[in-house]
């Protein structure tokens, strides 16, 4: 037996969940083999194979063992059996099989008559080996496949990209879009993310989700690395930060939005089909926007930490823009909703800009250890009463995040007490649905629960009621993934949403026209928006999978950020427990 094969078999026996890599293609390096259950003379396992290219001609999987076994599989039809050692399976030809790029084939099999896992020799998918280089993923101690949901969430972010897409784009039903996005003097403003089901690039929530996503990647880099998603999360974050750098056209000029929300919402069509120029909204000393600018500074400062070791030049560039934008926001203060009136019906600033000034200063303190930011934070605390107990953590209100981030940076009891007060409210006092979801707000209820869970996971990281908060966090995530009786993540689990309020995924394949007929169609969205978290249920756990319900069934980039970061955190704890 070869040394590499022996290592594979040993790690599979020890951990029961592996990342199966190949040398012939990048995407199959994400294939996952998980042992679901063992007994004295057999085991049940799941092979999750990522699909690189759309195909409708079915699939085949070949399993080879070192000795005769009995095997049961689903889905699939056995079409070849050689001495009960070599098995070939294909899809049932009576089924209408269509596997789309960016999705997964979930192939389950039960092996009987052997107890030793080293009898599994090779696996191939569509006649290509996917069992060569192996690395551990997880001990599979969770009820749900957090690693799979994590990777799917990153596919959702790729589906939200605006601009010219890279050659390795994994969402094949998306194409280049909004290539005419320009500033007042022709500045290139392509790139960035569409906010939700629409095609506007709202800068405030884009910066907010980027900060939260980056925070999770910083804290739980091991989880991203061990699930094969580290490069993908870096790419997701850089898609934002590259755009922010473009939008920061001079020291005190920043484009905070591209696209008119009201104009956008009267159209129901693909972003690829949009042909007319879009307005760009610039913030200046005369038209300030402290919330948006400070949040962008926070995102860039956080990203500078993430990229520090892998790209020092980019780290320095991010930090330069972060410092300048913080100074811009702090020196020329003003509510961004006044400078970009279009935003008031979409992302109005309700909490003011004081929380973002403190938040961005905290991220700069963490990124630079420059004590002037500590002094600024103390001033912002006093001026804007940031020691108060918040009731949520969202794109609008960063107070709770600031308190917990400062507890982590300084370990001062003042901040630790504030962090504990927030989580005590969330865990013990906030309303909950009958099935156990903490219900902080009706619009995007799952987003609010996920964000709160992420902050309490951060509190647990610094030894504040660790066991208690981990239990709460796990309960919230498991509610989303299926404990409520259904999954709220598209493409995962039982009865997941199929009609999200999301324009581009509701459109048929190009070149078929997409218009309001797609909106009113009773059928599932033709394109699978894999990994997207929908808004969620009401206070009584009620939810309907309706495209016209933008409160419960829209998806947005900020919904997934805290949710994905919690998934990474729970995987991190699984890895720790298995070491």
From TrEMBL:
The keyword Mitochondrion does not apply. Residues 146-567 form the Glycoside hydrolase family domain. GO terms for biological process: cellulose catabolic process. The active site is at residues 545, 554. It comes from the Eukaryota. GO terms for molecular function: cellulase activity; polysaccharide binding. PROSITE patterns: GH9_3. Gene3D superfamilies: 1.50.10.10, 2.60.40.290. This is Endoglucanase. Its EC number is 3.2.1.4. Belongs to the glycosyl hydrolase 9 (cellulase E) family. It comes from Adineta ricciae. It catalyses: Endohydrolysis of (1->4)-beta-D-glucosidic linkages in cellulose, lichenin and cereal beta-D-glucans. Keywords: Carbohydrate metabolism, Cellulose degradation, Glycosidase, Hydrolase, Polysaccharide degradation.
